[in-house]
């Protein structure tokens, strides 16, 4: 079975193409909806489907099959005989449908590949790709905000929550799509051929072990992250703080003339962004970059904005490099910072009461993200736990034990924090929370250990779905418990 060539435009002939869409979350529905609009024959298969998505598929006339397990899904695929399979991000490379597609000679796409192929529906936007273990959502939002401030019509899309296919079909179109792209989506992208992405600029912010249960090995995870740089045409942006990203850039197959732009906490060399005596500066996109550097913003001003933590400064440098590489000015970066607001649940102060600061970083769903939070505060009561996705937290406790007053473990499986605390910090008070009203209990125990000048930090270093709907639900429950504890009205 072979896929016909030439499906590289919205205006190509997509009719009669048989597509099996695996998964019916937000991404899966956007794929099915797009293919329906293109006139393809679509079958959606999923383990479960929300009432709203089922109702919308019914309204479109798109068929769907509920497959209770992988074997049932393979039977459905055999019966349908698709020309291509498009998988939602959660489908891992060892899934039975992937093996079936390989044996049958059926190509497997992600939503990103479909979006790249049909990106010219209205007008062809330039793509900027951003990935990383930590900080990619903030950097994506900030890059988009800078470009909007600079006068471009821009959308932040992808793994950030807005499906890229929805932006492709926007009736007005965009100048730039700033795409947060996950390691799952990157895994499925072809490096060459019709479906290969060719972004204008791209960045990998950092790489720490994460999603090892999905990728299988740390090497596979890093390789997926490195795919973000493939075929980039203008600038590949990497962290001088993280040698892995620099190695990924060196190994990347980029377009001729593409520049490598480093950023970090250092006096920048030619072609880099960095810091000099309390300033964030650009020495990559100024006319005489061999001899001069251009001020972007002062660290003092970032402190006034609440953006002076180390990880946020790195995010700002990365976003600046990306935005400057595609035509924004340093002045636009500075102006955008003044009006930028961080997402909820990303190092968000919930309350300050009796000298204790309560901080919600529920979005720290892996050890790398939690590390960035932990190093931002001098004295901590740390709330940790959830689904660890095959990663260990030994290095977190080793690095921050001297500043931990207590550690409180949530999550259904608390073996990992229990093991690590016993091995590396048995002298630090450790509590485990179980039963009902998890966050109310965790906040009450944290209050027993916190003193004037301490921060109680929810930075779980783990996914949330064992006890909560998602990381936002976890953060909201923490914030509500904190407000109840300190006597503030819940909002």
CATH class of the largest domain: Alpha Beta
- Provide the spatial order of strands within the biggest beta sheet: 7-8-6-9-10-11-12-13-14
CATH H level, superfamily name of the largest domain: Mur-like, catalytic domain
Total discrete domains = 3
Q: From the helix content, strand content and strand pairing, which structural class follows?
A: alpha/beta
Instruction: Tell me the fraction of residues in β-strands, as a range.
Output: 15-25%
Helix share of residues?
25-40%
Question: What is the CA-atom radius of gyration, in angstroms?
Answer: 23 Å
User: Remind me, CATH topology of the largest domain?
Assistant: UDP-N-acetylmuramoyl-L-alanine:D-glutamate ligase
Task: Identify the overall geometry.
Answer: globular
Distance between the ends: 56 Å
Which spans of ≥5 residues are poorly predicted at pLDDT below 50? Answer: none
Q: Tell me how many strands there are.
A: 20
Known CATH architecture of the largest domain: 3-Layer(aba) Sandwich
| SS element count, helices | 19
Average residue pLDDT? 92
Oligomeric assembly: single chain
Structure summarized in a few sentences:
The protein is of the alpha/beta class and 491 residues long. 37% of the residues lie in helices and 19% in strands.
């Amino acid at each position: 079975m072979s896929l016909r060539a030439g499906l590289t435009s919205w205006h190509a002939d997509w009719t009669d193409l048989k597509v099996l869409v695996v998964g019916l979350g937000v991404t899966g529905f956007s794929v099915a909806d797009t293919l329906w609009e293109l006139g393809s024959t679509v079958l959606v298969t999923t383990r479960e489907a929300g009432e709203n998505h089922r109702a919308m598929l019914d309204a479109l006339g798109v068929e769907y099959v509920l497959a209770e397990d992988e074997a049932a899904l393979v039977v459905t695929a055999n019966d349908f005989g698709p020309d291509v399979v498009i998988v939602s991000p959660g489908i891992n490379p060892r899934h039975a449908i992937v093996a079936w597609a390989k044996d049958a000679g059926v190509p497997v796409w992600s939503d990103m590949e479909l979006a790249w192929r049909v990106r010219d529906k209205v007008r062809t936007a330039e793509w900027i790709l951003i990935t990383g273990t930590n900080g990619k959502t903030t950097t994506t939002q900030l890059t988009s905000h800078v470009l909007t401030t600079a006068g471009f019509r821009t959308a932040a899309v992808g793994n950030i929550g807005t499906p890229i296919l929805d932006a492709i079909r926007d009736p007005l179109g965009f100048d730039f799509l700033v795409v947060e792209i996950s390691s799952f989506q990157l895994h499925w992208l072809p490096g060459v051929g019709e479906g290969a992405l060719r972004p204008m600029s791209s960045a990998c912010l950092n790489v720490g072990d994460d999603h090892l249960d999905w990728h299988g090995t740390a090497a596979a995870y890093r390789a997926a992250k490195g795919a973000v740089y493939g075929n980039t045409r203008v600038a590949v942006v990497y962290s001088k703080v993280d040698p892995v990203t620099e190695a990924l850039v060196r190994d990347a197959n980029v377009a001729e003339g593409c520049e490598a732009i480093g950023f970090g906490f250092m006096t920048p060399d030619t072609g880099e962004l960095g810091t000099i005596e309390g300033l964030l500066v650009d020495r990559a996109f100024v006319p005489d970059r061999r001899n001069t550097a251009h001020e972007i913003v002062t660290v003092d001003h970032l402190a006034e904005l609440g953006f002076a933590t180390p990880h946020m400064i790195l995010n700002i440098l990365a976003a600046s490099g990306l935005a400057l590489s595609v035509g924004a000015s340093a002045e636009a970066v500075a102006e955008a910072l003044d009006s930028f607001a961080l997402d909820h649940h990303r190092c968000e102060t919930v309350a300050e009461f009796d000298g204790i600061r309560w901080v919600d970083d529920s979005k720290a769903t892996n050890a790398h993200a939690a590390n960035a939070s932990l190093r931002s505060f001098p004295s901590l009561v740390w709330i940790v736990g959830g689904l660890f996705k095959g990663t260990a937290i030994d290095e977190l406790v080793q690095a921050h034990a001297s500043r931990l007053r207590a550690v409180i473990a949530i999550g259904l499986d608390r073996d990992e924090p229990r093991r690590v605390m016993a091995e590396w910090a048995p002298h630090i008070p450790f509590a485990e929370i179980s039963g009902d009203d998890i966050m109310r209990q965790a906040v009450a125990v944290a209050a027993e250990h916190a003193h004037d000048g301490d921060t109680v930090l929810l930075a779980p270093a783990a996914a949330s779905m064992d006890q909560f709907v998602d990381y936002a639900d976890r953060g909201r429950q923490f914030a509500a418990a904190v407000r109840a504890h300190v006597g503030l009205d819940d909002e």
